[in-house]
Amino acid sequence: MFSSFLTRALCQNSAPTTPDTQHEVPIQMGLVKSLVAGRTIAAASATAGKTEEGDSCTFGSPHYFALCGMGGILSCGITHTAIVPLDLVKCRIQVDPDKYRNVFHGFKVTLKEDGFRGLAKGWAPTFFGYSMQGLCKFGLYEVFKVFYTDLIGEENAFLFRTSLYLVASASAEFFADIALSPMEAAKVKIQTTPGYANTLRVAMPKMYAEEGVYSFYKSLVPLWMRQIPYTMMKFACFERTVELLYKFVVPKPRSECSKSEQLVVTFAAGYIAGVFCAIVSHPADTVVSKLNQEKGSTALEAAKKLGMAGLWKGLMPRIVMIGTLTALQWFIYDAFKVAMRMPRPPPPEMPESLKKRLQAEGKL
Description:
By secondary structure, the protein is mainly alpha-helical. Helix content is 74%, strand content 0%. The protein contains 16 helices and no strands. The chain has helices spanning 2-10, 35-44, 48-51, 62-82, 84-95, 103-118, 123-152, 154-159, 161-192, 200-211, 214-217, 220-249, 259-293, 299-311, 315-339, 352-360. The chain is elongated and about 70 Å long.
């Protein structure tokens, strides 16, 4: 399955698009009326001969969505694996705050008990789990964004674009968490239960023997509670922050910025979005950690045991972790698009039809 996906993603589009034939491509017909495609066509029309001719795929094509999924694999898989030591300490603070009082103390205790090798516990389920999650998160977000835009029309998509980002990202994350849940359960078990298992190949058969398939999906609902608000904030806040940065902070239009300058804006917007992501999703993250540590516990029981104060334990390391993580994820994702010569629509602009209607009504 993955190999066929990879082959499809790397193949060049067999029907190249030119400014004269763009509207003749069947898959683009519905997208021409959409916000996202409108952004590509209307906002970039002045530079179509310079930029669109070099694109490796048609916007909104299966090739484009497949590449978005590959970008998500790299974005999430690499970044989450890179911060496994911090994630390990964060999880231990959440489930045993008496032993691991803060981040620095948590690292000190972990190094004393497990050595430097102990800081890498859970790297394998982290890499595989978050790679699968990234595939669905970024790939399906692009799919749902176009799909919902076509449903509500070009003008409504512009007027209610924040809601569009929220709904598209929530839809994508719903499926992404189903892919993530088994590996997340194994990761937390390895990291927070002393002596249980040190590797993925030991942990998963052991978990299956104890509770069956349920052990891999018992934390799916709290995972949705953590990840869906997180992802909604991650995408909506990022999209709007990019828009505001180009409007009020960056001293020149996006079309005049170099690729490296655009990536700096991407990183800054990603970090801002990441701080808000960490805050809105932290209580559910704490419940997930506690739930996967204790056999037979429910989400409500775990939340009651933790109490209101306990739900917010480990927030500061998570803000640092998620802020940096989110910024790097967006940077890698956007850099991948640049490297693969993918269409990168500019921030949205008001459709001409909406401009004319508002001018006629004296509202513009």
